[in-house]
Structures are given as structure tokens and as C-alpha cells.
Design brief:
28% helix, alpha+beta, globular, single chain, 2 helices, 102 residues, 60s Ribosomal Protein L30, Chain: A
Length: 102
């Protein structure tokens, strides 16, 4: 994480224990970590400006997106990109990078 000029840049976050977790479980785990990191640094999910989401399989988009939509603040969804990519290991299905205001 980097803080600069009133912004927080979170590096890509992955699930803590991804083995055997569904895409939805990994996404919830990641977003909980994001919330904790933001809160610890004077921000909140309502201040998220942008997100980049990587999926190991784009076929998992709907499952991830349902969790994402439930997590975002109503009327305050950030700019977002979602792309398919080979992630750090075979158990990782989702990675999320966030930029937020402080």
C-alpha cells in the first residue's frame, strides 16, 4: 500500500487461504481485507475511486460480480476494470487492486 496526495493505492489483494474456496468466498475475503486496510488508513469503501479485478477464469465473472455489487456502496460504485489473467498460483481465482481517497 502507498499513500500519496490524499489517495491510498492498494496492491493487488488475494484471498488469505484460497485453497478450496469458491470465487465468491475469495472475493468476500479480499473485500474484507480491503475494508480493513482502508479503515486502518483513514478511508472507507465509500471512498474507493477505482478498482482493477483480475479473474483466473472469465467464466467466473458473474459469481465475482454478485459479491462485488453487494459490497459497493449504493450510488457510489467506483470506476472498474475486470480482466482475465494467470494469477500467482493455481488456487487463486481473484485478485483486486484498489485506489481510494483518504
Amino acid at each position: 500500500m502507498v499513500k500519496h496526495a490524499g489517495l491510498i493505492y492498494l496492491a493487488g489483494q488475494v484471498a488469505t487461504s484460497p485453497h478450496g474456496q469458491s470465487v465468491a468466498e475469495q472475493t468476500r475475503d479480499i473485500l474484507a481485507k480491503v475494508e480493513q486496510l482502508l479503515a486502518a488508513n483513514g478511508s472507507a469503501k465509500s471512498k474507493v475511486l477505482s478498482a482493477v479485478i483480475w479473474l483466473a477464469d472469465m467464466g467466473d465473472y458473474d459469481e465475482m460480480n454478485e459479491v462485488w455489487d453487494d459490497w459497493t456502496s449504493p450510488g457510489q460504485a467506483p470506476a472498474r476494470a475486470c480482466v482475465g489473467a494467470q494469477l500467482a498460483g493455481p488456487d487463486y481465482a481473484v485478485e483486486i487492486m484498489i485506489t481510494a481517497a483518504i
